[in-house]
């Protein structure tokens, strides 16, 4: 045990009172507080992020899930999700990390940001975001009869989160189509499993509908390259999730490898269920939730304080 020097403590208290009298604000005290004091640090985090979560596009499934979290968690009373775009969110995240400032963002994986930065998900005790998701492939009704070769390839299309992240990382230095072609060239054995026994076609047109996330750009462009190698003319159409489901259900698009299930796009899936064919998962191990830099001394959504 260390010995308490009461005289020294009295001097420190006097200095502290003098600083307050001179106009030193509480924010400065929080800035210099021992990071080991969880309560002080947690309150400081909530205040410093101004009780806001940096989100992405309003139409994204994770945006709706975060709105649900704001309602589900009583301690998030008064908090606000600020929506703009994925690019804007990543810019805000990069600025915060460069300056070692606190920030809370809506995040998902696979995504290159987890390879680029040291990040962590906040624990979600209420299970609003679910633990693990999968990405599914849906096609319009009648595709199997109209384009059996494409149907077979799309039905077989399955890869791992590491594959998708490889494409996303490469796409930070080149166009997505080039990144996808590079992945296909380097993983021809996996591609051969998708195309085994499939007869080439001669210029048949097919439209793949995707959401504007880098994850979906990765899978859509890889599928595009593979289908083109089999003779298809492929069009990629990026839209909001609700439009994506509507397009496949109404037959305005042929297929999509973008639905996140069972939580992220559940509302859209249920709305059009029965109007499209679900070919099952093309990737397992996806996740969504609230994400913070690992240097932040917080581990759970429940650690956040309500807005005053």
Describe this structure in words.
- This protein is α+β, with helices and mostly antiparallel strands and 308 residues long.
- It has two domains: 37-130 and 289-303, D-Maltodextrin-Binding Protein, domain 2; 133-287, Dipeptide-binding Protein, Domain 3 (Dipeptide-binding Protein, domain 3, Roll).
- Helices cover 44% and strands 18% of the residues.
- The chain has 14 helices and ten strands.
- Strands 3, 4, 5, 8, 9 and 10 form a six-stranded antiparallel sheet that branches. A two-stranded parallel ribbon has the order 1-2. A two-stranded parallel sheet has the order 6-7.
- Helix 9 (161-170) crosses helix 10, helix 9 packs across helix 12 and helix 10 crosses helix 11.
- It is globular.
- The two termini are 39 Å apart.
- This is Glycine betaine/proline transport system substrate-binding protein.
- InterPro entries: ABC_Gly_betaine_transp_sub-bd.
- Residues 1-21 form the signal peptide.
DSSP helix fraction: 40-55%
Helix and strand run: HHHEHEHEHEEHHHHHEHEHEEHE
Q: Nearest-angstrom radius of gyration?
A: 24 Å
Instruction: Give the structural class.
Output: alpha+beta
Determine the CATH superfamily of the largest domain: Dipeptide-binding Protein, Domain 3
Could you name the ranges where pLDDT drops below 50 across 5 or more consecutive residues?
1-42
CATH class of the largest domain: Alpha Beta
Shape: globular
Number of helices: 14
When the domains are counted, the total is 2
GO biological process, one term: glycine betaine transport
Subcellular location: Cell membrane
Signal peptide: 1-21
Protein name: Glycine betaine/proline transport system substrate-binding protein
